Amino acid sequence: MTKPRTTRTRTTRTAAACALAALLVLATVAAGGAGTAAAQEDPETANEYFETFRAMEGTEAYQEYEEFETMRTFAVSRAQEVGTLDDADRAEFAAVLNTMVAFERAYERADAGEYEASLAAAEEAEVEIDELESYEETQATLAGLAVTRFYASLGDGLRDQASSAERTPDRIELLSMTATAYERANRPNEASEFNLQAEQLSAEYDAAVERMDEAEATAGTLLDQCLNCDTVAGAVGGSANPVRTFERYQASQEALSDVQAAQADANENGLDDRTADLRALASDVGDTRFSLAVASVSILVGYGLVVGLIGTAVLSRIFLWRRTYEMAQIGSIVSGGENDV
Predict the structure, then answer these.
(1) How many angstroms separate the CA atoms of 340 and 318, rounded?
(2) DSSP state for residue 45 in the 8-state scheme
(3) What kind and span of H or E run contains 118?
(4) What's the whole-model pTM score?
């Protein structure tokens, strides 16, 4: 009887412990959810601002850029002291909060590699800083210093990303954003340098794309005009005029050269899809060129045979005439000798 009671006791204790653990987990989740909700809702009272700013403690963006942590700490202290908010206090707290939220969003977007969104959020932070300056110049100055440092850091990161980018369109975009970040970081020399790089690379890329487009158009026209030229029989019978076959063969050589050069351009610029399309097009044009080459040789051989046969017939006729002439000469000499006798 003792063992069953011990087993039941252990079971009861285990169940109670599990229930207590579950309650603790639920309480923790509820507390965390309440804190998150408080931080996300639009605060109105001093106490709500106090809870909101306090919930921002430990934010990575503010830890890396201490100016914002200083702003947060000051906002927490002031929210405790101010008591009831008037319109000016409420506008000041809102400006501080909006500035911090915009900066945190810029930081997070940059960390996620969403650089365009990061620049946009940082620009929003600057707008909020201008608003904050009308209420609290010291806070606005701190935020401005942090945002300037953020732009410089973002520019350095974008520069590294641009140097390692494989696709030219991505590199151009990254170079442009690098220039923008350095410009906003009050580093005009770097901004001018990367603006120039972006413009030069963009011009080179546009020229390469134009060559690709022209090569594709030329090859497409050739293939459309010579639909059956992918086979020797089709190439031979594709035109009743032999000269036209030779012209198409020459055009196919030029088209293949242009497409292969365009394929190299696409590969150099990291355009994988365009490279694959041009590789397939080069294969089609190459097949057409080969068929036209064989057709041209066949026509030349055919003409050679005809000319050879005609030449043989003419030579045979000439030899026959020569033999007849020689025989006639011999007959004339013999006849003249008999008359003399």
Answers:
(1) 33
(2) S
(3) helix 115-133
(4) 0.70
